[in-house]
DNA sequence: TTGTATGCGTTATCAG
DNA sequence: CTGATAACGCATACAA
């Protein structure tokens, strides 16, 4: 038996219109009728019918997603595809979801934020790539009472409605535990990455910290951990040599841990020099990484369900806004372990 | 701009009622008006409004799920929890979803099938645990034109609307690839399992086959693969001894592969004898397995997203029935690799 | 064979 | 401050 708005109107001895105004706090009602109505709602256990609401609704809900341009970093294609999945899943609701892209520079990010604030959305999903700029954006959104969700990068300060993404420390520890399992006695680990100009914030350091922490807590064995940071401002052949020279100098290195999503760069060098004798472990299921995984130049990839980042964030915001559901402030995604055998079944990657 | 039923009625020069009868093929219309209407639908690109339809609908959709009783095998708790998630997700639709449990015996399965057929459901989700009985159930459902989805176990013969579950061969290969990574030179593998009376069908053999296949394709090394099948019709202390004697007789066994979900049984024996020097790899995230994983008596678990099995199956059937969506005949779930570091983030296990 | 009217539960407008 | 009522898009019983 379904409780409708008229049922509680009857019970409270008022009309449906009044109940509606009280439920949506549109004003124009007295305190004592409010109390009567709320009591009736409690007693009968009223829950609104989403379908009927959506049918009767005049105005749409506006949600906007601010994501780095995938032309610059391929990674962002997958969260965007998750957003598209959410869009089609919510197609029958009166909600419009837009995606705004920004180039990974502070000025472009700020311009995009401005633009979004102008459009007065009902909710925002964004990647807080720059610490300071993200905080001021969060503040402006809070001032306007617009709820927002962070994806991929977690800032404890900004106090978003929710964070959707992985715990990068846990991801680092997971990678380390696999390394510990694969590493032979008296062999060493190299933490290597090819990085662009200094990123203000990325998972890089947390993934390294988690990795180190794991080994600190375990028996240390005879293994050592080396570090090699290669800057991309040199030409390609230059950093090829830099890596190979390092590896030749430390012949007991058996395993290479690449804490950013560019393991494929390391793999391409190893392929060039026909060195399949290393175990390489990297992050993120970019198509380039998958190619080398299947060729055997990358052995393990830690996945972070990039698609779910976009999908969950939008769904969560929608449910909070439309159905007024309570939300978890943390939506921690799994730390997925992928290799050549299970990659084909991952996140509908091959569809 | 939204195309409604009256829009195509206008365009075709008929009334809304006629369009409705044609769309739902309720008869009582002439061929030539049918053509006119279908042309209009094509040209205007009509898609029904799910919300309005659900609101206007009188009768509900009945979906029934036939699942083994989790009191007997704990595994089934998770698919059932996935079904419950689907139920709450579909709460606002006019659909009722029931779960029927059966004890893992042919006679009980058959009785449950009878009962379901009596109730004349619109769609069925079931675990085809017994080959012959499942095929005849499938046939009866087909005769009545009732679509059905198989979960967990795949029978190519029965021709279900879809199969939701893992590829067990791929799961075996994935386990093998991890073993290959962890195994030290000149050390051996034991495939061990404690089984009840012969199961008619389970993933067991496929998981073993996939495992063996992987090693067949790789350089064989000096490693050997041993097999040990322990029957549960002895008393506990009996099979404790059987395992330990086997391990003592083959001191170079470093790794134990348990292809069914009862790795915790093996782990409990190893714990009793304080043997942490083996790498144990098992299947399924039963609470018992997770406990030993965290204690270090199990090292790796292959997960099959048991919860998604139930959830996806119901959602898929609902979408096929209610929104008349096309469905993939295969809904292959990922092969998840879990260890002590990433288990806490898996499938909302810890919520 | 076809058209019309009513209802589903909610929102929103307008008259009291 | 409050009540009545017309939409929203579709299904369906009933009238023609």
TrEMBL record, chains A, B:
Give the InterPro entries listed for this entry.
HTH_LacI, Lambda_DNA-bd_dom_sf, Peripla_BP_I, SBP_2_dom
The record's section on CDD domains has:
HTH_LacI
Q: Which UniProt keywords apply?
A: DNA-binding, Transcription, Transcription regulation
Q: Which Gene3D superfamilies match?
A: 3.40.50.2300, lambda repressor-like DNA-binding domains (1.10.260.40)
The record places domain HTH lacI-type at 3-57
PROSITE patterns linked: HTH_LACI_1, HTH_LACI_2
One matching Pfam family is Peripla_BP_4
Q: Which GO terms describe its molecular function?
A: DNA-binding transcription factor activity; transcription cis-regulatory region binding
Which protein is depicted?
Maltose operon transcriptional repressor
Q: Which organism is it from?
A: Saccharicrinis fermentans DSM 9555 = JCM 21142
């Amino acid at each position: 038996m379904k409780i409708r708005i008229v049922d509680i109107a009857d019970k409270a001895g008022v009309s449906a219109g009044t109940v509606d105004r009280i439920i949506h706090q549109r004003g124009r009602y007295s305190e004592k009728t409010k109390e009567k109505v709320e009591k009736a709602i409690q007693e009968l256990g009223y829950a609104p019918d989403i379908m009927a609401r959506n049918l009767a609704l005049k105005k749409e809900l506006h949600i906007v997603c601010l994501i780095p341009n995938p032309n610059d970093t391929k990674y962002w294609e997958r969260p965007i595809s998750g957003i598209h999945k959410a869009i089609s899943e919510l197609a029958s609701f009166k909600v419009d979801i837009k995606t705004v892209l920004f180039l990974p520079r502070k000025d472009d990010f700020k311009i995009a934020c401005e633009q979004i604030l102008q459009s007065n959305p009902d909710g925002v999903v964004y990647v807080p790539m720059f610490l300071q700029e993200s905080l001021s954006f969060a503040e402006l959104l809070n001032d306007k009472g617009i709820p927002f969700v962070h994806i991929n990068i977690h800032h404890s300060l900004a106090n978003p409605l929710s964070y959707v993404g992985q715990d990068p420390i846990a991801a680092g520890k997971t990678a380390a535990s696999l390394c510990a399992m694969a590493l032979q006695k008296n062999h060493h680990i190299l933490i290597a990455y090819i990085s662009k100009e200094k990123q203000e914030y990325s998972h890089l350091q947390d993934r390294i910290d988690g990795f180190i922490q794991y080994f600190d807590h375990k028996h240390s064995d005879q293994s050592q951990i080396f570090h090699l940071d290669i800057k991309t401002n040199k030409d390609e052949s230059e950093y090829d040599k830099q890596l190979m020279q390092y590896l030749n100098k430390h012949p007991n290195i058996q395993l290479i841990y690449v804490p950013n999503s560019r393991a494929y760069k390391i793999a391409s060098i190893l392929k060039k020099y026909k060195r399949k004798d290393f175990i390489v472990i990297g992050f993120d299921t970019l198509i380039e990484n998958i190619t080398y995984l299947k060729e055997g130049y990358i052995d393990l990839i830690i996945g972070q369900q990039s698609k779910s980042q976009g999908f969950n964030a939008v769904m969560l915001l929608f449910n909070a806004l439309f159905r007024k559901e309570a939300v978890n402030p943390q939506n921690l995604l799994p730390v997925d372990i992928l290799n050549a055998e299970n990659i084909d079944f991952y996140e509908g990657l091959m569809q």
